[in-house]
Amino acid sequence: MKALYIFLAGCLVFTACTKKSENVFTQTVTPIYPVITMKGGPNVIVPIGGTYTDQGATSFDSAANTTTNISPVSNNVDPATGGVYTVNFHAVNSYGYQSNAIRHVLVSNYANAADDISGEYTRLSNGQTVNVTKVATGLYTIDNVGGVKGDPNFVFPYYIGFLDMNTFVGTEQGTPIGPLSLKNPVIIRGPGTSITLKYVVINDHFGTSTRTFVRP
Fold first, then answer.
1. pLDDT score of 191
2. 180-to-170, 177, 212 alpha-carbon distances in Å
3. Which of 36, 53, 80, 87 has the maximal Cβ count within 10 Å?
4. From the centroid of its chain, how far is CA 112?
5. Do 96 and 136 belong to one domain?
6. pTM score > 0.85 for this model?
7. Tens digit of pLDDT for each residue in 165-207?
8. What are the C-alpha distances in Å from 192 to residues 145, 195, 216?
9. What is the pLDDT of residues 115-126, one digit of tens each?
10. CA–CA separation, 45 vs 159, rounded Å?
11. What is d(CA 171, CA 168) in angstroms, rounded to the nearest whole number?
């Protein structure tokens, strides 16, 4: 019996002595995305009845140190109809990382470069402030087009375009909450420098009521 105990103890000692430690290495990898540069800029104005040929873009792959010309993957510009349209670009680099870019095209004959309705507006029904920013003649972004209070999911740039001084449109655009457009848009200028914007938001997350925003 004593011999058996000694044998088992010897096995345990041998096993413990021959166990090897394992080294664990960790590495943080930073994704490198292709850089898309649009030829002609991100915002373009085209007269109604004119023609539009997109200039394309380039994609820079820093991993391979190469620049490639790319064409739009989609283009819904209709030069015969006033509105805001989008031209979409997509690129993939040698690591498989992807980037997207959008050019906005305003089809309009409005050419009053001095006109500017940008500023901070307040939605009358809930006091939510939204920012309207001019990006080109007659072309603006609204950062919270629905005037939704307390929900960052509804904060994203939506483009509106003016066809003349008193007519603007919000044609359908892809957004983080799905396709979105404006119905019955109205602008009221005055009294003084005051501006009022009214419209119905067409999107699955909104009702059918008219939303009113005022800039003092």
1. 94
2. 9, 8, 17
3. 87
4. 27
5. no
6. no
7. 999 999 999 999 999 999 999 999 999 999 999 999 999 999 9
8. 24, 9, 9
9. 999 999 999 999
10. 13
11. 10
